[in-house]
Amino acid sequence: MVSPLTLMAVHAHPDDESISTGGILARYAAEGVRTVLVTCTDGGCGDGDGGVKPGQEGHDRSAVVEARTAELRASASVLGVTHLELLGYADSGMMGWPENDAVGAFWGVPVTEAAGRLAELVRHYQPQVLVTYDPNGFYGHPDHIQAHRITLEADRQTGTAAKLYYTAVPRSRMAEFGRRIQELGLDFGGEADGDGHDGDDAERRRGGGREEWGTPDEDVTTYVDVAGHADQKFESLQCHASQSDNIFFLKMGRDVFGELMGQEAFVRAVDRTGAALPEDDLFAGLR
User: Fold this and answer.
1) How far apart are CA 184 and CA 186, in angstroms?
2) Per-residue confidence at 177, pLDDT binned at 50, 70, 90?
């Protein structure tokens, strides 16, 4: 029996699915592709009520996890995700946080152990296309890096997927994005970080320097038009209301968001189809 066309996106936290893959999840679901979203952590290092941060008085991790899980399910529904799988590891926080070393933190789980669980899902769903982060997790978040590592190891263990992609934001687009934001006179109280959260808070959390954001344009292999699903992408972000103070894309409003976020970019890291590059379809060579 031939498996249905299936896309599996492997993300670290609730709300990660919306920014870099919300468009493809919605588009391919609308085209009849089976979409599987794997979320590796519980999001427990996110904001609590009133925007309270981990380590601050009033931050209730269990309440945050409960809220963010409900938000994730709502987001997946908006995007038409066929199957949502939760690995349930503890959110590790930003690099250098004490949560990195907490019992059960995703960052500290042996790669082969977590990859084994993911490999079971890959064998079950038989995705032709896998999507995750690049080796640096785009901007150095430990849980993003770990998601990358376990996805590559699960692919090595199974050899099931025909193609594996890393999410990308071309540097030229980052520069254009910054220019467009200035033209529109939008004020986000500082730069934004690589996953759509306000930069000064994220920078404070990281406690480190800032590298040049974005993927070198010459490394990007695939651009997918998702303009027809920009509303779903925006609404999926709205589902993550508990984190809305940090998700600067929501501050644009629906119209500007749709103008700037109608295309998603990827780096094809593994290909077993021989499909020509550049591509405009993750399933090129498969249908």
Assistant:
1) 5
2) confident
Structure tokens at 157: 């263990």
**Phi and psi dihedrals of 136, rounded to 5?**
-95, 10
Ramachandran assignment for 139, one of left (phi > 0), alpha (psi -120 to 50 degrees), beta (any other): alpha
Residues 6+ apart with CB under 8 A from 160: 122, 123, 126, 127
How confident is the model at residue 193, as a pLDDT? 41
**Cross-strand pairs, 131:** 9, 165
Q: Locate tokens 């249908």: which residue?
A: 287
3-state secondary structure labels for all residues of 141-204: CHHHHHHHHHHHHHHHHHCCCCEEEEEECEHHHHHHHHHHHHHHCCCCCCCECCCCEEHHHHHH
Domains assigned to the chain: 6-271 (3.40.50.10320)
Non-local (6+) Cβ contacts of 214 within 8 A are 168, 169, 170, 171, 172, 173, 174, 194
What are the tens digits of pLDDT across the range 48-83? 998 898 989 999 999 999 999 999 999 999 999 999
Q: 3-class secondary structure for 35-76? A: EEEEEEECCCCCCCHHHCCCCCCCCCHHHHHHHHHHHHHHHH
